[in-house]
């Protein structure tokens, strides 16, 4: 429980700092500008090969890392490509890494937190003394340091995407004469990775397919409302897998929900229990998924029939889940239309209060339990 409180507090602190600096708002505005200046797609098409496991893990789950922007950056690059390019067009990068309208402007970060001081203002420690008397100069210095940190994190994301392996790498970065990486000239690879052939499988905008054996679609609001910025990698991975299942079996999804047990989840997607279970819990809290509910018309029909056998065939929100039975989930895309930062701020604040109440109750009941154990021993 202490770990849960610490993790929640750390995440809430980062969100509130991004609110103070306007980091999420600025990144969302940059993405909205790209969307409006381009083809304005209602949804982004993602090849499902990114999700499928090859051996123990998929390219997706290799990017479920506690730190870094790799998964987020890849999805942002796909979004940018589909706003700019037509179906079948090959990737061409005409965007700088830093500066106005650059790749760095598309990602939101909280900044460098100093654990010793418990503050984000440690960057002012390296500020020239002559500038410290001006609030405006301090703000410019803080903004510059945040831009430098954002650039370092974008470069780190590119390295991670390249270092997935010779065949699995999701970007290719050329080298200069001295062997150093030329980050500005990176190329995006397809969702299946660079491939085995000498010629790399450079990203091209996929054709929309009716089957998720090939593609899935992601609503534009996932990018434009800030969700891509504030969800952590395991939540994004869980959301993508659930989305694939919902589109692969749309009727089942709408009637009784979709689910995954451990073995098919590990074999099919390489997503481990802790990432999946925690991801589902948070997505439920944030309003992006729900426990399966009957369609209104079908629910009314079953109620009118009054047949308990028919009703029992469909999972109900009030039905008691049996031990080891998986949860049945439905996507709630209406949740994506809400402001992501505000939603997470509210829900994580509620969670902070719930965790604090639980800790208080344990502390209160702890002495009573110890006393009862002692009495029993006597």
Describe the overall structure.
The chain is mainly α and 378 residues long. It is 49% helix and 6% strand. It has a two-stranded antiparallel ribbon. It has a two-stranded antiparallel sheet with strand order 2-3. A hairpin with a 2-residue loop joins β2 (53-54) and β3.
SSE topology sketch:
Layout: H1 2-21, H2 23-37, E1 43-47, E2 53-54, E3 57-58, H3 59-62, H4 70-84, H5 135-162, E4 171-172, E5 187-188, E6 215-219, H6 221-224, H7 227-230, H8 233-248, H9 250-255, H10 262-269, H11 273-285, E7 289-291, H12 296-305, H13 308-312, E8 329-331, H14 340-377
Antiparallel strand pairs: 1-6, 2-3, 4-5, 7-8
Helix pairs in contact: 1-14, 4-5, 8-11
Cα gyration radius (Å): 24 Å
The coarse silhouette is globular
| Mean pLDDT level | 86
Q: Which strand-content bin applies to the residues?
A: 5-15%
Figure out the total of helices.
Answer: 14
**N-C termini distance:** 31 Å
How do the strands of the widest beta sheet line up side by side?
A: 1-6
Uncertain regions: pLDDT < 50 for 5+ in a row?
298-302, 309-319, 373-378
How would you describe the oligomerization state of the chains in this entry? single chain
Q: N-to-C SSE series?
A: HHEEEHHHEEEHHHHHHEHHEH
Helix content: 40-55%
User: Would you report the number of β strands?
Assistant: 8
Overall SS class: mainly alpha
- Describe the main β-sheet briefly: 2 strands, antiparallel
């Amino acid at each position: 429980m202490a770990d849960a409180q610490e993790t929640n507090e750390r995440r809430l602190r980062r969100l509130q700092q991004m609110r103070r600096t306007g980091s999420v708002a600025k990144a969302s505005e940059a993405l909205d500008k790209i969307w409006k200046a381009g083809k304005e797609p209602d949804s982004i098409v993602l090849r499902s090969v990114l999700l499928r496991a090859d051996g123990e893990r998929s390219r997706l789950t290799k990017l479920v890392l506690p730190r870094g922007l790799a998964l987020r950056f890849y999805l942002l690059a796909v979004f940018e490509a589909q706003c700019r390019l037509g179906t079948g067009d090959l990737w061409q990068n005409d965007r700088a890494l830093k500066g106005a309208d650059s790749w760095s402007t598309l990602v939101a970060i909280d900044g460098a937190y100093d654990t010793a001081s418990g503050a984000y203002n440690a960057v002012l420690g390296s500020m020239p003394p002559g500038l410290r008397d001006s609030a405006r100069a301090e703000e410019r210095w803080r903004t510059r340091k945040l831009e430098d940190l954002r650039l370092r994190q974008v470069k780190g994301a590119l390295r991670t995407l390249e270092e997935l392996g010779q065949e699995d790498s999701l970007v290719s970065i050329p080298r200069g004469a001295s062997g150093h990486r030329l980050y500005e000239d990176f190329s995006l690879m397809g969702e299946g990775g660079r491939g085995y052939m000498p010629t790399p499988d450079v990203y091209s905008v996929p054709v929309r397919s009716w089957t998720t054996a090939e593609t899935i679609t992601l609503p534009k609001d996932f990018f434009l409302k800030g969700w891509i910025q504030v969800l952590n990698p395991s939540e994004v991975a869980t959301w993508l897998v659930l989305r694939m299942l919902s589109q692969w079996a749309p009727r089942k999804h709408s009637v009784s929900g979709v689910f995954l047990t451990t073995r098919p989840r590990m074999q099919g997607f390489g997503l481990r229990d802790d990432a999946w279970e925690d991801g589902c819990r948070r997505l439920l809290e944030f309003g992006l998924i729900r426990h399966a509910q009957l369609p209104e018309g079908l629910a009314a029909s079953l109620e009118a029939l009054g047949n308990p056998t028919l009703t029992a065939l469909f999972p109900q929100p009030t039905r008691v889940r049996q031990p080891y039975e998986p949860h049945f989930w439905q996507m709630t895309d209406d949740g994506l239309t809400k402001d992501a930062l505000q939603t997470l701020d509210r829900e994580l604040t509620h969670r902070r209060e719930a965790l604090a109440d639980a800790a208080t109750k344990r502390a209160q009941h702890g002495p009573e339990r110890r006393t009862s154990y002692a009495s029993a021993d006597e």
